[in-house]
Amino acid sequence: MRRVVQFSTGNVGQHSLRALIGRPDLELVGVHAAGAEKIGRDAADLCGLTEPTGILATDDIDALIALKPDCVVYTALGETRPMEAIEQMAQLLSAGINVVGTSMVWLVTPHQTDDWLRGPLEAACTAGRSSLYVNGIDPGYSGDTAVYAALSLVTRAESVTVQEIFDYGNYDDYEYTGTAMGFGSTPDAELPMAFQPGVVSSIFGGLVRNLASHLDIALDDVGERVEPWYTGERIECKMMTVEPGQLAGVRFAAEGLLGGIPVITVEHITRLTSAAAPDWEFPPEGMTGVHKVIVEGEPRVEVSTHLSHPVLDVTEAGCVSTAARAVNAIDWVCSAPAGIVAADDIPPTAMIRGLMW
Predict the structure, then answer these.
(1) How many CB atoms are closer than 10 A to CB 87?
(2) Burial letters for 109-148: b for 16+ Cβ neighbours within 10 Å, e otherwise?
(3) d(Cα 58, Cα 30) in Å, to the nearest integer?
(4) Average pLDDT, stretch 196-216?
(5) In sequence order, what are the beta bridge partners of 295?
(6) What is the C-alpha to C-alpha distance for residues 208 and 257, in angstroms, rounded to an integer?
(7) How far apart are CA 220 and CA 218, in angstroms?
(8) 3-state helix, strand and coil shares in percent for the chain, rounded to the nearest 5
(9) Whole-angstrom Cα distance, residue 322 to residue 39?
(10) Residue 180 CA neighbour count, 13 Å, CB half
(11) What's the Cα-to-Cα distance from 294 to each of 30, 75, 160, 304, rounded to whole Å?
(12) In terms of CB atoms within 10 Å, which of 58, 171, 317, 342 comes out highest?
């Protein structure tokens, strides 16, 4: 049985924590929390369970290392504090603790990651003889798993598009997602963080280049595009209230170009409620979100992934699946050679063991 620590209990972390508590093949031994309102609370309380675990949240990383876990599930937001996140993960890895996580999304395609990020973490893996794996549903599953299944069904591919089409209205994360995408901003405002020049290609370009490498093609360039949509009417949703003239939808993509034509596209269409951006593509009727892979080729293939849950909204169901991509890899990563692991390294069947009990 693997001894595991959960690091953070936010939108994704609460679901990975709940999964760890429920898994018979994993033993939760510690929980990290940064907020004062969470420190000292039982792990069960932090993820909506009623039966106490006796594991209390702490912000003391050294105390968690002293527990000698086999693995840490790192879901703390790192994209807004990358150097601190690198330092925390390196501290764990150097201590000989494997790390799986959903933070620092550049690491979803580690072979395409810049040296400033990969270097310190590789050094930490070497020092601690430990392994690091970062993945999620998007970036992650859609562009490194579903897309391969779709491509295996054609004899020739002309283009590949990986899409996330989601209504984020019920996603209670204005603090990061809302502000990063600029929801509620006006056309004359400074570009939000997510759409500053180079950011889209930085986050999603690795998926494009990684797929090009597997297809054995040399792209001319990886470009990006961003298209905002401003509402003419007031839109109220769980994330926020958007007034007329403010941003309520955005479409963006990283594009791999060959001969001036996009041949590999990773695109997101994100809106706040179905009232936003009515002319853009929607998920299939009755759905509020879809992850889609489209291969134009011989034959044309379209693969759609729909998430649902009897209680949770589809965006929160997406957070459960994001957590699953890390938690389900724990056993394999703990047995892997030291270093940074890519999704390509893990046999797909290794990600499904122990899920039925």
Answers:
(1) 13
(2) bbebbeeebbebbbebbeebebbbbbbbbbbbbbbbbbbe
(3) 8
(4) 95
(5) 160, 301
(6) 10
(7) 7
(8) 35, 25, 40
(9) 24
(10) 11
(11) 42, 30, 6, 9
(12) 171
Determine contact, residues 6/64, Cβ cutoff 8 Å.
no
Sign for the CA dihedral angle at 78, 79, 80, 81 comes to: positive
User: Using alpha carbons only, what angle is made at residue 334 by residues 331 and 339, rounded to the nearest 5 degrees?
Assistant: 135
Which candidate, 201, 166, 165, 155, places its Cα nearest to that of 296?
155
CA angle, 133 then 137 then 141, to 5°: 75
Residues 345 and 131 sit within 8 Å (Cβ to Cβ): no
Q: Residue 225 corresponds to which tokens in the numbers above?
A: 């595009």
Give the C-alpha separation, 258 to 239, whole Å.
Answer: 38
Note the Cα 222 to chain centre separation in Å: 21
Where residue 288 falls among pLDDT bands split at 50, 70, 90? confident
Backbone angle region of 283, left / alpha / beta, with phi > 0 → left and psi within -120 to 50 → alpha: beta
Report which residue type is found at 148.
Y
The widest CA-to-CA distance across the chain, in whole angstroms, is 60
pLDDT in tens, 70-109: 999 999 999 889 999 999 999 999 999 999 999 999 999 9
Q: Beta strand 26-32 with 2-7: parallel, antiparallel or unpaired?
A: parallel
Residue 326 structure tokens: 């890390």
Please say whether the beta carbons of 173 and 194 come within 8 A: no
pTM above 0.85, yes or no: yes
Instruction: Identify whether the C-beta of residue 118 lies closer than 8 Å to the C-beta of residue 341.
Output: no
